[in-house]
Amino acid sequence: MKKILLFLILLLTNCIAIAQTNSDVLWVTTPGSTNWVYKVNEEAKVTIQFYRYGIPQDIEIKYSIGPELLKATKEGKIKLVKGKAELSLGTLNKPGFVDCRLTAEIEGQQYKHHVKVGFDPEKIEPYTKYPNDFNEFWSKAKEEAALCPMKVEKVFKPEFSTDKVDCYLVKVQAYKEDVNIYGYLTIPKKPGKYPVVFTPPGAGIHVVDPSNPTSMAYAENGLIRFETEIHGIRPDLDAKTYKEIARAFSGGDNGYLVNGIEDRDKYYMKKVYLSCVRAIDYITSLPEWDGKNVIAQGGSQGGALALVTAGLDPRVTVCAASYPALSDMVGYLHDRAGGYPHMFKELKGMDKPEIIKTLEYYDVVNFAKQIKVPVFMTWGFNDNTCPPTTSYAAYNVIKASKTALITPVNEHWSSDNTKIKILNWIKTQLK
Question: Which of 166, 342, 412, 414 is catalytic?
Fold first, then answer.
């Protein structure tokens, strides 16, 4: 196992979190540990600095401290002297994360910031149970889905093509008759044989843009990329139409992530997972495929689906997942942060035995246990959408060769530099 820890070293040797977005104020929070990680039962401390117009502010700061995404266990106020103070975050008696949430108020306006630290996170284990018939269930599901013929419609899109890359809008029948997924296929214009990359989408219903620099970078670096949606909705619809669809189909207890969840065979995500396998069917049928390399790569929900596909389909040879969703979702039932979509925190009536049982067949951690190919994962500590506890829960159970790029300061995003690192790592894994 290879593990790379990327810690943003700023202001000499201190690892800090900075919050400033076209604002008059600047937060700087510096954990006592330069890697933001402590041992269980070790006291964690953070130095807080607050500036306005670049000037240190001697003001009172409100704080609340507790396990990430759960109720605070400690609240209070602390006075900044010369714009600076040190605050104890306490500790944890088991592996996990503590979140320190800060609020400053100036002239009636509030400014918020937060910082998380971990306690032995490499020892975090998932609470999601592994069903005895997990492999049997998915083997049968794949066999049934394979009976559906693969019908493909492929249209050249000159507006997204360049002098180096050809782009196509592709419609593929998957899972059952008249159930389709769409995606943009980008292929190097130069004739040859190339690795293929399957890139599923983040959560929600939104426009897929094949012209973004990341999408183009793969084809420009000699990889075929199939960037998909999962709902059977044309990705070339205008943004307004997508918003209208999303409002009707993608929120709360009406959202697709809870649709049919009380029955493992009727759960919406069964179609999605099997459609990921069909996407692999399609890209490995391309005459331009090199016949060797199949990469699953994505972020957030896409990161979850990349891990699921790598665990579900033995044709995948490499997996790269950023801050995966759908990981150890039942964590909230055990007084610990659970994975996106936070259904056991955000929605009522979800803690039913039949729902918990269904999720055992769909949670990312149980697919991560199946993976036998190299995996690259990256995540940030300050992420509240896909909290670090749940990324560790998935990463820690992977038994294959794995690499972690941990960026503590990050919330639910990755930098362009990180995206380049992922692409470069994929290139090192090619056969």
Answer: 412
